[in-house]
Amino acid sequence: MTLFESTVNIARPVSEVYQFLNNLNNHQQLMPESIQDWRSTADEASFTIKNMAKLALVVESRIENSVISIVAADTPPFEIKLQWLLAQEAEYTSVQFTIAAELNMMMKMLASGPLQKLADHETQTLGTILG
C-alpha cells in the first residue's frame, strides 16, 4: 500500500470535528473542483473525478471522537482506504487524513501526485471550514 498523509490542527473540541467528518454529506465541502456528480448519505458517497474515474465510498467503521475509516463500495480501479484520525490536544484537535492505495508502478506514477494533492486539499479545507 502507498500512503498519502496530511495533517491539520483545528482550534475546536474533538467532538465537533468528529461530528462534521462523521457525516459523508459534509465531505462534499472538502472536495476539490475536479469532483463532479456528488451524491451522498451520512454513510455513503459517490462521485466522478473529472476526466478520470467514478468512485463509490462507504464508511467501514467509526470510533467516536477518534477514527473514521472509509473504503470503496464497489470495484475501484485500485484498492483504496481513507482514514481520519482525531486526537484532542491541549487547545486544539489534531487531525490526520490518510489515503492508502494499492498502486502498481504505472498507477503510482500517474496517481501519486493527485492523491497527495487530494489529501492536502481535504485537510486544508477542513481547517478553513472549522478553523
From TrEMBL:
InterPro entries: START-like_dom_sf. It comes from the Bacteria. This is SRPBCC family protein.
